[in-house]
Amino acid sequence: MAFIERNVASDGKRVMTVEQFRRWLMTAFDTNGDGRISKAELRRAVRLTGGLFASWSSGQAFKFADTNHDGFIDEKEFINLAQFADKHFNVMITR
């Protein structure tokens, strides 16, 4: 994950662009390499990054992001997940 700059805002949030966020998730947590994030993969990401209540938090994020309700977060839905992460997780998403 060396491609992500370790920018941190004054409030302690990790700062990254939507593209950096997408690449980080896909590289580190898309375990089956299908180009989508499943609920289990997102739960693992939240848990490993120190998120409290990982199952609940990832479930809420998943409901928000998976707008077509197919059980995966795909390319078109990453912006939804980025918006949720910016608001509820320790991440600041920039444009």
Automatic annotation (TrEMBL):
Keywords assigned by UniProt, alphabetized: Calcium
GO molecular function, one term: calcium ion binding
Domain of life: Eukaryota
Annotated EF-hand domain residues: 17-52, 60-88
Pfam families (UniProt xref): EF-hand_5
Stated name of the protein: EF-hand domain-containing protein
